Amino acid sequence: MKIYNTLSKRKEEFEPIVPGKVSMYVCGPTVYNLIHIGNARPMIMFDTARRYMEHKGLEVNYVSNFTDVDDKIIKKANEEGVDPSVISERYIEECKKDMKALNVKPATTHPKATNEIGGMLEMIQTLIDKGHAYVAADGTVYFKTRSFKEYGKLSHKNLDDLRGGNRSLLVSGEDQKEDPLDFVLWKPKKEGEPYWESPWCQGRPGWHIECSVMSKKYLGDEIDIHAGGEDLIFPHHENEIAQSEAANGKIFAKYWMHNGFLNIDNKKMSKSAGNFFTVRDISEKYDLQILRFFMLSAHYRSPLNFSADLMEAAKNGYERIVTSVSNLNFLLEKAQNDAMSAEEEKLVEEAKGFITKFDEAMDDDFNTADAISAIFELVKFANTNATEASSKAFVKALKEEIVMLSDICGLIVEKEAEILDTEIEQLIQERQDARKAKNFARADEIRDLLLEKGIILEDTREGVKWKRA
Ligand code: AMP
Ligand code: ZN
């Protein structure tokens, strides 16, 4: 399997540090609002990479943080007159709802920056002790960028070029730094801001140190893959490398993966320009599986344009797979013979070629666009070859292959079978019997089971009534 590594600017054979295991850190969102469709791109694409690696038998330890202390969160908290944690907790919950609807698997660990302050204090102290950081008169701790000789290796920038662009590196309030290239590890609190005690001043961490510390704590000093959107290459990931490698004395991450940006109607997404969509906005018009399908239709490193037409095309594409699976389910019920004919066995062998095609695409730096094409070819093959005369085993084999490949992409293509009225009546009767026998646990269990399937029970004097939600 090959992965394009931003560090070397080429595709490299993927060899995890520990054979069979993958440690992966994906920079997560700052939680001060509902996530937008740009934020959904890294979530979906790196979740797909994870699913594919798991499909190949690798055990993936996947960590993705929530940045829950930040100027934007504090600003919103002040506007609403609540504690910043109220804002961050609210949007973490909302983000998790969107992730579920996008079928993004929860990370192995979702650390929150505010729970990891202790680790940050420790790493900052180590950097000071090793001469890589210093404390300014106002208590701000800065990283001494020039002390890390390899600074610039990820973004392929040279320190002197950066120095030439000094002005843009001067941040207001950071006037006590020795060199414009230095960046903040810890900063003093301002009035009305959350803060933590530290040896340097009451304050809060800089953004970059959060990820270095959370990655170290949950995955160790050296990890396989570090990922995020391409806007994070500089300065965020460059600074993470400087901090982690200077503090730990080890290579921080072997492979750096970055997704391209999502634009709207060929323009940068921007709230002020009015071309801005949250994932929630899209969910009002489309099943979010279609948004996932849309993202998968392009390679993760390419820029991706979002438009109404392209979403309609994605809808058609996704529905082509869903319809095929639904037809195969219909044929399964109709099938007269169980066992495959010799002719059908040959066709199933032929269909395995689509799995090979899919795997080859994914092995080539997770080329989901080509992987989706392989699924389409398989769908076409199934639509042509499965008929009412087909055997059960044959239809089942084709259906399972489509569902399996879609599942690796995180696409749900088989809708849950609807519960039939007769099944509902049977369960209600069973619940009545359980109640008579004073087995209330079972009675509740049946109520919950029905609720999960969207059936609401109402106990009335005349008996039990039910309706579909
Ligand atoms: P943020 O909350 O801005 O730190 O972003 C969280 C993640 O979303 C990061 O990996 C960003 O690189 C990514 N991201 C933000 N905007 C876009 C966009 N328009 N297209 C693709 N990725 C984005
Ligand atoms: Zn990060």
CATH 4th-level superfamily of the largest domain: HUPs
Through-space gap between termini: 46 Å
Strand order of the largest sheet: 4-3-9-10
β-strand percent reads: 5-15%
Mean pLDDT rating: 95
User: Structural class of the helices, strands and pairings?
Assistant: alpha/beta
Largest sheet: 4 strands, parallel
Shape: globular
What small ligands are held by the chains? adenosine monophosphate, zinc ion
Q: Please tell me the total number of domains.
A: 3
Q: What fold name stands as the CATH topology of the largest domain?
A: Rossmann fold
Low-confidence stretches: none
Alpha carbon gyration radius: 27 Å
CATH level-1 class of the largest domain: Alpha Beta
Give the number of DSSP strands. Answer: 15
**What CATH architecture label of the largest domain applies?**
3-Layer(aba) Sandwich
Helix content: 40-55%
Number of helices: 16
List the main descriptive attributes of the protein structure presented here.
Rossmann fold, Four Helix Bundle (Hemerythrin (Met), subunit A), 469 residues, globular, four-stranded parallel sheet, binds zinc ion, single chain, four-stranded antiparallel sheet, alpha/beta, binds adenosine monophosphate, 16 helices
What does this structure look like?
The protein has 469 residues and is α/β, with parallel strands linked by helices. It has 3 domains: 258 residues, HUPs (Rossmann fold, 3-Layer(aba) Sandwich); 102 residues, Four Helix Bundle (Hemerythrin (Met), subunit A) (Up-down Bundle), CATH 1.20.120; 47 residues. α8 links the parallel β9 and β10. α4 packs across α8, α7 crosses α8 and α12 runs parallel beside α14. The model has no long low-confidence stretch (mean pLDDT 95). Zinc ion binds next to loops.
